[in-house]
């Protein structure tokens, strides 16, 4: 099981690396899918939150390993759909930054919540991320392909986080998860005040 998680993480990294090279503005993407795929890769706040969700799911283990990322992706698609439909989601940027800070804090603590609560936390944060993706969707893109792109990219980032989290638990170094959580949370604070 642990070896499979590590392999999945490596596949996700190798899949995402070429995309990261094009993550900065100025590149034209060939399809609506690729435009959506690139969006989560282009912002540090999105990257940190997506990786933190995977790390958190790995640290929780068991059913949370699937439930937390699935809740995030599902709620993110709902948030994206709300924004694409033209409805307002209040405090989108603040919600994204808060998600980075609180996900970092959740990685630092050893507090365990029921899986439903963990999925609800992930889903709440995901609404803001999805709304940001939807708000920033270029007019020339096909909305379903764009949404599929950002959902796939998010799932891959979760898998990378799960892979790292699995490696950390395999070597039985929970302190590493806390240190990574501290870095993520402090980066979120820095982004909020910058």
From TrEMBL:
<keyword id="KW-0812">Transmembrane</keyword>
<feature type="transmembrane region" description="Helical">
    <location>
        <begin position="175"/>
        <end position="193"/>
    </location>
</feature>
<feature type="transmembrane region" description="Helical">
    <location>
        <begin position="147"/>
        <end position="168"/>
    </location>
</feature>
<keyword id="KW-0732">Signal</keyword>
<feature type="transmembrane region" description="Helical">
    <location>
        <begin position="91"/>
        <end position="108"/>
    </location>
</feature>
<dbReference type="Pfam" id="PF04955">
    <property type="entry name" value="HupE_UreJ"/>
</dbReference>
<feature type="signal peptide">
    <location>
        <begin position="1"/>
        <end position="23"/>
    </location>
</feature>
<keyword id="KW-1133">Transmembrane helix</keyword>
<dbReference type="InterPro" id="IPR007038">
    <property type="entry name" value="HupE_UreJ"/>
</dbReference>
<feature type="transmembrane region" description="Helical">
    <location>
        <begin position="115"/>
        <end position="135"/>
    </location>
</feature>
<feature type="transmembrane region" description="Helical">
    <location>
        <begin position="37"/>
        <end position="57"/>
    </location>
</feature>
<protein>
    <submittedName>
        <fullName>HupE/UreJ family protein</fullName>
    </submittedName>
</protein>
<feature type="transmembrane region" description="Helical">
    <location>
        <begin position="64"/>
        <end position="85"/>
    </location>
</feature>
<keyword id="KW-0472">Membrane</keyword>
């Amino acid at each position: 099981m642990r070896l499979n998680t590590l392999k999945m993480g490596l596949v996700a990294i190798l899949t995402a690396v070429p995309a990261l090279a094009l993550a900065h503005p100025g590149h034209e993407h060939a399809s609506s899918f690729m435009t959506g795929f690139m969006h989560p890769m282009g912002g540090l706040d999105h990257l940190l939150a997506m990786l933190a969700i995977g790390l958190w799911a790995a640290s929780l283990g068991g059913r949370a390993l699937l439930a937390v990322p699935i809740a995030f992706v599902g709620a993110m698609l709902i948030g994206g759909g709300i924004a694409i439909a033209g409805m307002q989601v209040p405090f989108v940027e603040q919600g994204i930054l808060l998600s980075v800070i609180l996900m970092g804090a959740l990685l630092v603590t050893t507090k365990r919540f029921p899986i439903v609560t963990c999925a609800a936390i992930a889903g709440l944060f995901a609404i803001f991320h999805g709304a940001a993706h939807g708000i920033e969707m270029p007019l020339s893109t096909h909305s379903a392909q764009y949404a599929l792109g950002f959902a796939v990219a998010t799932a891959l980032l979760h898998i990378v986080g799960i892979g790292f989290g699995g490696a950390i638990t395999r070597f039985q170094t929970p302190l590493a998860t806390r240190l990574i959580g501290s870095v993520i949370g402090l980066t979120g604070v820095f982004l909020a005040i910058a």
